Amino acid sequence: MSGSSSTHEATRLLRAPTVLMQPSEAEALTVVSFTTPRRFARGSTIIRQGEATDTGFMVLVLSGEITVENLIARRGNPVTVNVLGPRSRMGEMALVDGAARSATGTASTPMQGAVLVRTALEALIPEQPATAAKLMTAVARRLAERPRDSVHKQRIDSKRVQSMHGELDALMTTPDRRR
Q: Sheet holding 104-107: strands in order across?
């Protein structure tokens, strides 16, 4: 990764507790050295839902924001599911499994990121196996959190639906007072 300030910022953000891993500074510098800095203009599509050929990278957000949207079959318009800022990452699922992208990420502000491509990750593994293992363990941990978050959201949605059904039932059984 070129640029001293970008390298320093990416290293600092990578070491944050909310990111992929909590590496030593040397480990963070190693991972960052395998990334490429990239600037995205506001409105740039970084990752597109359904894309199956350009899946070999993930982005660590250094500055700016990415709006994450999903296109749901029954709706015509995408639904915003998250807004990612500095210390966030996007694209790690497809980086690991090579499957089609599950969401679209668009730069909602001018954004700077550190891009880790699959070939760089594959080069990191034999060169720095301990650091690569720590990174992959952290990615796996993040991926495991997603189904748990989905289950939690489904439980909340289920409670809302039950509450709405109760309110509708009450309205349906209340006699019409206008008669």
A: 45-47, 104-107, 66-70, 79-84
Q: What is the pLDDT of residues 84-123, one digit of tens each?
A: 988 888 998 888 888 899 899 999 999 999 999 999 999 9
What tens digit of pLDDT does each residue of 45-65 get?
A: 999 999 999 899 999 898 999
Question: Which residue, 112, 121, 113, 109, is CA-closest to 56?
Answer: 121
Angle at 84 between CA 149 and CA 117, to 5 degrees: 95
Residues 6+ apart with CB under 8 A from 43: 106, 107
CA distance 24 to 22: 7
Tell which residue, 70, 62, 49, has the closest CA to residue 88: 62
- Residue 124: how many other CB atoms lie within 10 Å: 20
Q: Where are the alpha helices (DSSP H) in the chain?
A: 4-14, 25-33, 92-97, 118-127, 129-173
Terminal-to-terminal C-alpha distance of the chain: 75
Spatial separation of the C-alpha atoms in residues 151 and 142, rounded to whole Å = 15
Measured N-to-C along each axis, helices 4-14 and 25-33 cross at an angle, to the nearest 10 degrees, of 120
- Partners of residue 82 on adjacent β-strands: 68
